[in-house]
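Q: Could you fold this chain for me?
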Amino acid sequence: MPIIYKCRHCTKEIGRLDQHVVESTMLGFDQLTTKEKEDMIKYNANGDMEIISICESCEDTLGHHPHYHELDFFIQ
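A: Sure. Below is the predicted structure, expressed as structure tokens.
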């Protein structure tokens, strides 16, 4: 079951873990609230786990344009 990290804004794949066994504490999931887990962790029909995060490019853009934080999506 791969764990795929994707950007919430541009949907670019940020990274991937292809290990069969990974403890959630190693990934920091135990630090998330239930709401954060619901918002950030998705399971695909094929069994892959997607972690919704933010890539460096989008983070940099948000840093230069703070008013974009008000938008759900700022990349068209």
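A (continued): The helical segments are 24-27, 34-40, 56-64.
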